Amino acid sequence: MRQIGEAQLDDIALGAGVLGTGGGGDPYIGKLLAQQSVREYGPVTVVDVSEVDDDALVIPAGMMGAPTVMVEKLPHGNEIVHAFERLQHHLGGRATHTMSLEIGGLNSVVPFCLAARLGLPVVDADLMGRAFPELQMCLPGVFGIDCAPMAVADDKGNASIVEGVTNAWTERLSRSLTVDMGCSSMIALYPMAGHQLRETTITGSLATAEALGRLIRETREAHGDPIAAILERCDGHHLFSGKVLDVERRTERGFARAHVRIAGLDGDAGSNFHLRTQNEHLVAEREGEVLASVPDLIIVLDSETGQPITTEELRYGFRVAVVALPCDPRWRSEAALDLVGPRYFGYDFDYVPIEQRVNGAG
Amino acid sequence: MRQIGEAQLDDIALGAGVLGTGGGGDPYIGKLLAQQSVREYGPVTVVDVSEVDDDALVIPAGMMGAPTVMVEKLPHGNEIVHAFERLQHHLGGRATHTMSLEIGGLNSVVPFCLAARLGLPVVDADLMGRAFPELQMCLPGVFGIDCAPMAVADDKGNASIVEGVTNAWTERLSRSLTVDMGCSSMIALYPMAGHQLRETTITGSLATAEALGRLIRETREAHGDPIAAILERCDGHHLFSGKVLDVERRTERGFARAHVRIAGLDGDAGSNFHLRTQNEHLVAEREGEVLASVPDLIIVLDSETGQPITTEELRYGFRVAVVALPCDPRWRSEAALDLVGPRYFGYDFDYVPIEQRVNGAG
């Protein structure tokens, strides 16, 4: 058990920018919201999964929608309480804890807005170990835990409880509601008993994000190489370096889709690179050859500062390094790859773990 | 208080075909479902509004979607129980009664499926006195009663509780869910206390539909003129007679839209007529001149038998008489016309009551 205040939120948000793989909404925005809540209501208690009682009622909460919209249409903080309380009402019980839906992007810290307001502890864990674009792409789902009942709420006061017959149906129905709500909504979902957290979530992910953020910050302060530090800490691989030529964006069915073209620089000069994105980066290619794919993490970093760059920020002229980090090993089972592998997203190739791709190519 | 069995359902459904103004789904389908339920579970008790206790919990129920889809994707009867029970759970109480959302089309009798299964009485009233395409077009809404909380359910087991901040938002959100569910869903909505029914609903509408159906049946049996009988009973007006030339249909945003062209016959020979339809007929025109519009009822009848014809049945070659009946006078207030008048549907003219149009033209 520990207290999280403004300073720790700085580091968590920076680390979550890396783990967001381009999506999840700009964690800088989430950080400002969380820090404002902490200033107003006091620091938030974070507990480890081992400290959560077996019969605790844990309700993850966050934002849903296109990150391009989320960062322009800021929540005032009460909508997430609205969503959370609707789900509590539906369940007929009070939550004992909340937690992050995804450790990538602004959803890493949005639960702190809720926790500060309601005086609830946050569990140090998340459902993805990164960010993914769709709600059924949560590890508890792989272990048979229902996303539903789920609450969706917006800034205008609209709210809904969604109970899909599968997690994919819950995603589909809540996505349509989110589109109607203006491509951005606040959600509470995957209600779980404490004992269900142990095997089915990514534990310690707030600590992981915080340590990663601190590492980047301290390496910068020491005039070191933050990109090298990230790769060493996370067993990551440098994919390529270059200059952004073009970002073709479209907001489609509630998702921010993009195709990013990057011209190689330095050792990669003369090569062209492509990123395919649905909120998060899905596939990295060099001259048509796949270098990395979901569920491994593909991350665009500023080549000087190591600052993670979200897809909505990315634009012509940016000098970037693209790196890949291995995902949680549980995402590599056959059942998990059916949910989050490249074929799910419409790509005609099988997932190959990043370390095998790198060794095969090297 | 009276019992409704298979025979009465025949007459109610026939009358509801007239009051459906082309939409609301083919009442023949609703009748088969209701009669099957009555055969299986026994007759249903119908009570007058005056017999309902002030603190009764009345939950109207029915189908939502495009009638073209509703009549092909038949419910098996349990989905409506599913929707109803979700709303009861959300409200934390048991309903004492159910009732029809609209007396036009299949929704006039769908509540009998529910009532038979759950042993609930049906209140002899509805929320429209006809059929309308959108959920906020209910008379209780004009008196400030909320459509929400509302339950939506489908045949697959998906369900949702929708709480729009206005009735128009509840319509919009539940329409998106209905489109995802395959353009047809079962709904429970406008939960009301008994005392709220008295001023805000159309009372006696099941009796009205039954009497109208019986009149048509008996007039046919006596080789009389059923169209003349309908006009006399309902203070209606004959608009024109002709042969259907073309029905241009499209299913759009969950609605069945249509543009019907009719060539005049008999006294109307040489004239062309048009009907504009969104589930229900909205506007009737002769050579560009408006003859009748919402909220008055525009009805297409078989010119020989007086049988009401739904928009999805209508096709080239049908010989039809188009008639108009005055709507409930409460639909003619300024507030009500904002909800259901021609301008709401995008037409650039003000509503003129049918009897004034006829007198003005005559």
Q: In the CATH hierarchy, what is the architecture of the largest domain in chain A at level 2?
A: 3-Layer(aba) Sandwich
Cα-atom radius of gyration of chain A:
19 Å
From the 3D structure, determine the CATH topology of the largest domain in chain A. CV3147-like fold
Shape, per Cα inertia axes of chain A: globular
Average of per-residue pLDDT values of chain A: 94
Largest interface, counted with CB-CB under 8 A?
Answer: A-B, 19 and 19 residues
Layout of helices and strands, plus pairs?
The structure is a homodimer of 362-residue chains.
Chain A: E1 2-4, H1 6-19, H2 27-41, E2 44-47, E3 57-65, H3 67-70, H4 78-91, E4 97-100, H5 110-118, E5 122-123, E6 125-126, H6 139-142, E7 150-153, E8 159-163, H7 167-180, E9 184-188, E10 192-193, H8 194-200, E11 202-203, H9 205-221, H10 226-234, E12 237-252, E13 255-264, E14 272-278, E15 280-286, E16 289-293, E17 297-302, E18 319-325, H11 334-340, H12 354-361
Parallel strand pairs in A: 2-5, 3-4, 4-5
Antiparallel strand pairs in A: 1-2, 3-9, 3-10, 6-11, 7-8, 7-9, 12-13, 12-18, 13-14, 14-15, 15-16, 17-18
Helix pairs in contact in A: 1-2, 1-9, 2-5, 4-5, 9-10
